[in-house]
Design brief:
Shape: globular
Mean pLDDT: 82
Low-confidence stretches: 1-8, 655-661
Number of helices: 30
Order of helices and strands: HHHHHHHHHHHHHHHHHHHHHHHHHHHHHH
Number of strands: 0
Strand content: under 5%
Length: 661
């Protein structure tokens, strides 16, 4: 897989008039979003419901999707066929129907009229078709199956059996009820995520992405495996402003992957390092990914607390990856970049305001002012625009502001279709009673065994994520499976973070691993080999969710002693696990040594829990003791080998004269 053209050119290339129309529509999405996120209607004294705003967003998105996205690969790409013109107009109408008439609809929601049935049916069909064009068949088929279940519940066996919901009431509720399409998922997309996409685009527009890459190269490029460490640092930092795994790979990968290959990394390893580093952006505070913003809506926990709790697991993810990258470089004898290829650090840091001032503004707004996440992102975006008044390099230009707005609208197309389908599924779950049935069913399936239930949920996450975006996977499983975990005594935040982590893992888990595919495309490597390398490099993400389920110390919950000890031992565990996976420390490790180091690493990763203090402390002591013995053994063997090598070198040089190193 060496060509990324299908991903780049999935939109039509239109003529001047239609191109201008779609550009204006895409720009209108974030402009309208800013207007409503900042509560402007209330300041103006307008009586305007949130659902009316969602209707405007749906109207614009529907129109753009069917104008820009061809129905099939064979469909025209330089003009809009008549059927897409009709679908675009219909989409605009069904969105405006909500935007204009929703106050009246809400007052008489239980009264089903012919116009509501027609509008709702068209809207549902457009949502499924739009999602098919943008994400493939899996998500719309899943949405359709849920709708058919709600209608034909009497055909389902056992506890899933029911009476079924009549078509007219079902379609009316799915589109117009505030607990379905117009519910939580589209609220998060249109109120929160849109603001962060705009923030990321504005930051990239003033050179923030370039600054991140240059800092990483200047700081780490000279060390062994330097380009790979650059990829880890740059993608981790860039992930704080984008939250998209594939987007991170496509932005950073064109720089970091060729550098890694040039210094000696194999193609599949280079692609995997970038993919794993980019995927971590979805779990790295303060921004994380779009799915993380939905957690507060389902848990009632403020986003600031979610971000704080997610900080240590995200750091451990990158620490484990960083250790493996360094050990991989040592194993293959790689060196850093030449000095003439490194940008001078001081001038690069002199441009630090490009990144640090907006990021500091975001953190200040989130954690000190306690603004809503959407308003906090706009506050940080305003800081970027403010910088434009004082720097020649970032001088405000209307062109890049309009480009950032257009890219934001473009980024909302797929997400809006995804969350709309998620809204259909949530509506079915709420209206059919599945929300009460599934936790009981899963509990019976797991036999009340929490560990087995976690495995079931983890596998379901990865399988669903192979054909669905992370947001859709999280929303679906947060509704269907999080209650089952909570019923077995798992903390609310831990349960939802577990689902988020395993939803993200589909990005690097074969056979369908989109971030790995993107990395392989740039690296020119085998897709499956790259995917399996991703699993090895991102191994901690498979382990740490189980750890914070059973012991929340890694989520910064518990006593200070528990938290500090758990973090220290977890870092040591990451190092030993990295040695075991790479098969290298000071020299290549034997299979037996790798196994023992892996066991010692896992033992140290288990957090110390006050409730099970004796057992968890004993496991950590055993793991730490074993690790100490193994490290001393390897250090001694290294010293012996070096001494033997030096003795042999002296003999070969005539008894004592030193030869070249």
């Amino acid at each position: 897989m060496t060509n990324t053209e299908p991903e780049v050119s999935r939109f039509r290339s239109l003529g001047k008039r239609l191109k201008l129309l779609t550009k204006l529509l895409l720009i209108a999405v974030p402009v309208v979003g800013i207007f409503f996120i900042m509560d402007t209607p209330s300041y103006l004294g307008w009586d305007f419901l949130r659902e009316q705003y969602y209707g405007i967003v749906l109207a614009i998105v529907f129109a753009c999707v069917f104008l820009l996205v061809p129905a099939t690969k064979e469909a025209p790409r330089n003009r809009v066929p008549w059927y897409d013109v009709i679908l675009s107009i219909l989409g605009f109408v069904v969105g405006l129907y909500v935007a204009i008439l929703y106050p009246k609809i809400l007052r008489w929601l239980g009264i089903i009229t012919p116009d509501r049935i027609i509008i709702s049916t068209i809207a549902i069909l457009l949502i499924l078709e739009g999602a098919r064009r943008l994400t493939g068949w899996v998500l719309p088929i899943l949405g359709l199956l849920f709708i058919l279940y709600a209608r034909f519940t009497w055909l389902a066996p056992g506890v899933l059996h029911g009476e079924g919901i009549p078509w007219d009431r079902l379609v009316n509720s799915l589109y117009l009820d505030p607990n379905a399409v117009l519910g939580v998922p589209i609220e998060v997309s249109a109120v929160i995520v849109i603001a962060y996409i705009l923030f990321g685009n504005l930051l990239s527009g003033v050179g923030g992405g370039e600054f991140i890459t240059n800092v990483a190269i200047a700081g780490f490029g000279r060390f062994r495996g330097g380009p790979a460490k650059v990829a880890v640092v740059a993608s981790g930092l860039f992930g704080t402003i984008s939250g998209s795994a594939v987007a991170n790979v496509m932005v950073d990968g064109w720089i970091t992957i060729p550098m890694m290959k040039k210094t000696g990394y194999k193609a599949h390893v280079a692609g995997a390092i970038e993919a794993v580093a980019s995927t971590g952006g979805q779990i790295m505070p303060p921004v994380m990914g779009a799915a993380a913003f939905i957690i507060p809506e389902y848990t009632g926990i403020p986003y600031s607390k979610v971000a704080i709790a997610a900080f240590i697991p995200a750091c451990l993810y990158y620490i484990c990856l960083f250790f493996q990258v360094d050990l991989e470089a040592g194993k293959t004898g790689l060196r850093g970049l030449p000095r003439n290829q490194l940008p001078p650090l001081r001038p690069v840091l002199g441009q630090g305001y490009l990144f640090f001032i907006p990021l500091a503004a975001l953190i200040y707004a989130l954690f000190i002012l306690y603004l809503d996440p959407g308003k906090a992102a706009l506050f940080a975006g305003a800081a970027i625009l403010f910088l434009g008044f004082f720097s020649r390099q970032t001088r405000l230009r209307l062109s890049w502001i309009l480009e950032a707005l257009e890219k934001t609208g473009e980024g909302l197309l797929e997400l809006t279709m995804v969350v709309a389908v998620a809204g259909l599924i949530i509506g079915v779950v709420n209206f059919s009673g599945l929300a009460f049935i599934l936790p009981v069913l899963l509990g019976h399936l797991a036999g009340g065994n929490l560990f087995l239930l976690l495995i079931i949920i983890g596998v379901a996450n990865i399988i669903l994520g192979m054909g669905m975006p992370t947001v859709a996977v999280y929303v679906l499983l947060a509704v269907l499976m999080a209650p089952a975990l909570i019923q077995l005594g798992v903390g609310v935040l831990a349960a939802h973070l577990f689902i988020l982590y395993y939803g993200i893992l589909s990005m690097i888990t074969p056979p369908v691993a989109f971030a790995a595919y993107a990395g392989a495309a740039i690296a020119g490597s085998n897709v499956m080999r790259t995917g399996y390398t991703c699993m090895r490099l991102g191994i901690l993400a498979y382990i740490v969710p189980f750890l914070f389920i059973f012991s929340p110390a890694l989520l910064l919950m518990g006593s200070v002693v528990d938290i500090v000890l758990s973090i220290i031992t977890a870092i040591a565990g990451c190092f030993l696990l990295g040695c075991a996976l790479v098969g290298y420390l000071f020299r290549n490790l034997s299979p037996q040594m790798r196994l023992l180091m892996g066991l010692a690493g896992i033992g140290l990763l288990i957090p110390i829990h006050s409730q099970f203090f004796t057992v968890t402390l004993l496991i950590n002591i055993i793991g730490g003791s074993l690790a100490l013995v193994l490290l001393l053994w390897e250090w001694r063997r290294r010293s012996q080998l070096l001494a033997t090598s030096e003795t042999g070198s002296e003999k070969s040089n005539g008894g004592g004269q030193s030869g070249p190193l």
